[in-house]
Specification:
By secondary structure, this protein is an all-alpha fold. The protein has two domains: 51 residues, no CATH class; 217 residues, Orthogonal Bundle (MetI-like fold). It contains 14 helices and no strands. The termini are close together. The mean pLDDT is 81.
């Protein structure tokens, strides 16, 4: 498969993801219990200032008494025109809200994946070359971290670096210090598995005949690893990181809510409580698009490192 064919395939996948995520979100929001008009009115005017009259006015204003198929056709028509609609609570265009949140989510995702990759490579390679106590220690540590949900890791970091040692901010956005704890929480969860993949692939490569022959030619261990090890190890590791992108998207929702990071996940959680369907659909669509784009980047990187695998 050529790089152009890969891009075309991913573009088709992007279209299907946008339609599928949007439709699923529409159906799930319509099946939630409770009065949608009342929840929207409560988000607009406050829980103590809402009664049945206010809820009925909101219902008539937003056309919430329309049939589901009319609402779905209207949403699909707007989507084909690249219009995500307006928020039912604030009245602001959804695209403006989502664009602001998407930048923060991309920043968190990229820094987390970069840190997780660095940690995985460091500990994975050390485990492969230092079999014994060090390898077993990293195995137990990886198992322990992976057994904990990402929000538990985040809570432990908060207790350690914000309560016990108050050296880092817990919530919000504004300085680079605010990025440290959410990035570290998500990166530790990802690296807990990735480092074992690096370790296993490193062991396979260093025991291959071509690697052993390179050592016999008189190259130093570092020269052999740089020239013949890194490239062969990197392809399966990068492919596995692509698989883990699902965990990244899932973790972003929990981590952003935990640390009040102003991203897509945080906005999605607030929109669900407010029953703000256009914002929910916009956030879900952006998260689906982000997943496809990150996967496309991983595939293109693997194609660039080893074009032979793309032709098979």
């Amino acid at each position: 498969m050529t790089m152009l064919q890969l891009i075309k395939q991913r573009f088709l996948q992007l279209i299907l993801v946008v339609w599928g995520v949007g439709t699923l979100t529409f159906v799930l929001m319509r099946t939630l219990p409770g009065d949608m008009a009342y929840r929207i009115a409560a988000s607009r005017y406050g829980q103590d200032n809402v009664d049945s009259v206010a809820a009925e006015l909101v219902r008539q204003e937003l056309g919430l008494d329309a049939s589901w198929w009319q609402s779905y056709v209207g949403w699909l028509t707007d989507l084909l025109q690249f219009n995500l609609g307006n928020s039912l609570v604030s009245g602001l265009p959804v695209i403006e809200t989502v664009q602001h949140q998407l930048g923060h989510s991309i920043l968190l995702a990229l820094t987390s994946v970069a840190l997780a990759s660095a940690l995985a490579i460091l500990f994975g390679v050390l485990s492969a070359f230092r079999q014994g106590v060090l390898d077993h220690s990293f195995l137990w540590l990886s198992t322990l971290i992976r057994s904990m949900p990402v929000f538990v890791i985040g809570l432990m970091l908060i207790l350690l670096f914000a309560v016990l040692w108050p050296i880092l901010p817990v919530a919000g956005f504004g300085t680079w210090q605010h990025l440290i704890l959410p990035t570290l929480a998500l990166a530790l969860s990802l690296a807990a598995v990735s480092n074992r993949v690096v370790r296993n692939n490193t062991l396979k490569v260093i025991h291959t005949p071509f690697y052993q022959f390179a050592k016999l030619k008189g190259l130093s261990p570092s020269q052999v690893f740089i020239r013949h090890g890194i490239r062969n190890i990197s392809v399966p590791v990068i492919a596995f990181i692509g698989i883990q992108l699902v965990t990244v998207i899932e973790g972003i929702v929990m981590i952003e809510s935990l640390f009040s990071w102003p991203g897509i996940g945080h906005g999605l959680a607030h929109a669900i409580f407010a029953r703000d369907i256009p914002v929910i659909q916009g956030c879900a669509l952006m998260m689906g698009i982000l997943f496809v784009l990150l996967n496309t980047g991983v595939d293109l990187l693997c194609h660039w490192i080893d074009p032979r695998g793309a032709k098979s």
